[in-house]
Structures are given as C-alpha cells and as structure tokens.
Amino acid sequence: MDKIKEFLPFLIPLVIVQFGLLAYTIHHILTHDNYRRGSRGLWLVVAIVGMQFWGSILYFVLAKQEEE
Amino acid sequence: MNSGFWAFLKKECTELWRSGRLVILLAIFVLFGIMNPAIAKLTPWLMEQMAEELAGSGLSVSAVTVDASTSFAQFFKNIPMALVIFIVLFGASLTNECGKGTLIPLLTRGLSRQAVVTVKGIVMVLVWTLGYWLCFGITLGYTIYFWGGEKMARYALAAIFPYLFGLWLIAMLLVVSVVARSGTGVLAGIVGLVAACFLFGLLPGVARWLPINLMSAQDFAVGQEEISEFARAAVVAGISGVAGYIGAVIGFGKKII
Predict the structure, then answer these.
(1) Which of these ranges, A46-55, B117-126, B230-239, has the smallest mean pLDDT?
(2) Which residues of B have a CB under 8 Å from any CB of A?
(3) Which of B18, B110, B114, B232 has a C-alpha 20 to 30 A away from that of B69?
(4) Are the C-beta atoms of A14 and B31 separated by less than 8 Å?
C-alpha cells in the first residue's frame, strides 16, 4: 500500500492525461466520417488498444482527414 | 512583412488546434515529463524484483541509489523519441499543402511565398518550444520535489542543447520540404540527414562539430564533458540552421506549385 501511495503523485496526472488523450481521440474518431485509411471500427480498436499514446499518434498521423 | 503574414499565421494556428495535432503533441510532452521521474523512482523497486532472478544466474545486484541525475538521464534518453514524434506529426505540413494545391488560391491573392515558409517555421518552433520546456519543467518539478534542487542550473543548461537540435531539425525540415514532393519524402530526407550525421560522427574529430552531438547533452549534465565540447556543435547548428531557413525561403520562391 505504501508503494502505491508513493506513486500517487505520478499516477494521478498520468491517468488524467492518458484518459484525456484517449477521450479526445475517440471523440475525434466519432465526429469524423471519412478517414484517409481504415474504418471507424479499426481506429477505435487502435486508439483503445494503443492506449498509452501510440494509438492516438497512429490515428492522427495516418487516418486523419485534412480539414477542407 | 505584411503580405498576408498575420492572416496566414492565424489560419495555421487555427488548423493546428482543429486538426488535433497541438493537443496530442502537448499531451505527449506532458506524459514524457511525468514518465521520466516516475521511471527513476521505479528503478530501485524493479531492481529488487529482478535481483532474485539475477542471483540465480550468478549476478548479484547491489542496492541502487536513485537521485536527480537518474531522473534527468531518463529525460535526455526520452527526448529523441519525443522529437521523432514531433517530426512525424509536422513533417508533411508544407508538402501536403503544395500537393493538394490549397496554397494556390492564397498565393494568387497576394500571400507571399516567403510568409508561407516563415509561418510554417514559426508555428513549428513555437510548438517545439512550448512542448519541450513543458516536458522539462514537469521533470524538473518532480525531481526537485523528490530529490531536492541541487545542480539544477547545470541540468537546465544541458537541456538547452537538445532544444537547439530540435530547432536545427525544424530548419532542415523546411529545406527538405522544399525539395521533396510528399510527406514521406520529407521524412525520408530527415532520416537520411540524421543517418549521415551519425556516419560522419564515426570519423575521429568530426563528431564534435556535428549538430547531432547536441543530443548527448547527458554527458554534460553529469560532468563528463565540458560546455566547450558542445559550443562548436551549437555554432554549426546555428549557422546551418539560419542558412537552411534562408535557403528554404529562396528555394520555395522558385518552386513550381
């Protein structure tokens, strides 16, 4: 238990940032209909599996449709 | 410089926000900033876990001491990764617009080509500056909180070198963007450039002149190297960076869009 307490100063912001990023990515995926590659289902899986941040990077680099 | 400069800067900033690149990049820098001291803090515990296994294979692990330098060692080790992500997210920004022809209507309405290159450069420099020092600041804050604030000035000084390397790479990115036709081409060009730096670095005596040397700022932070060792690389990076920017402006002026 002590160990966890020691890491709380790291864990809390980490969790906030990671889930924030995940939520932002999922929001972006759901509010866009066309992707350069892949489909909505694929990108949702990628974003959730690659949760730490890799999924989000992949999505924004590979799939994001440029705004018109 | 007023031929559409401010309007284009505003458009770029809006796009940076709307495309989500700013958010994701800042989030990554924040994550890295938190991870550095967290990994340092975890190290003794990890070692303890591994000690039993290692003892079985004949290796004995003595107690590991962790201090501020471990945290910053992580920082200097992880910054290249953050830089790679930064380059991948921004690399295609200029070539994309040329490829899709979205610049043509703006250029015909009087936006100067010089402003295009400058604004692209400024936006990248701003994001890199913000993200990099955010990451450093978070690592610094945690490190002072856990291990006290000794020698922090030296770490802060050392942190300037990778930052300069990032600026240099942004200038090179502009140059490559003028030459290359696609985002993939830009990335290939940057990878080739960095690989060339590594190869030339193998030659004796050349390494200290190369901008890539700035990435080994860790050696300065722990006192293995003197600052003069990096001054040369910093000067070379500064001169070639400015020359690169000017070359990119001239080159972009002549590029057929």
Answers:
(1) A46-55
(2) 15, 18-21, 23-24, 27-28, 30-31, 34-35, 37-38, 41-42, 45, 85, 88-89, 96, 100, 142, 145
(3) B232
(4) yes
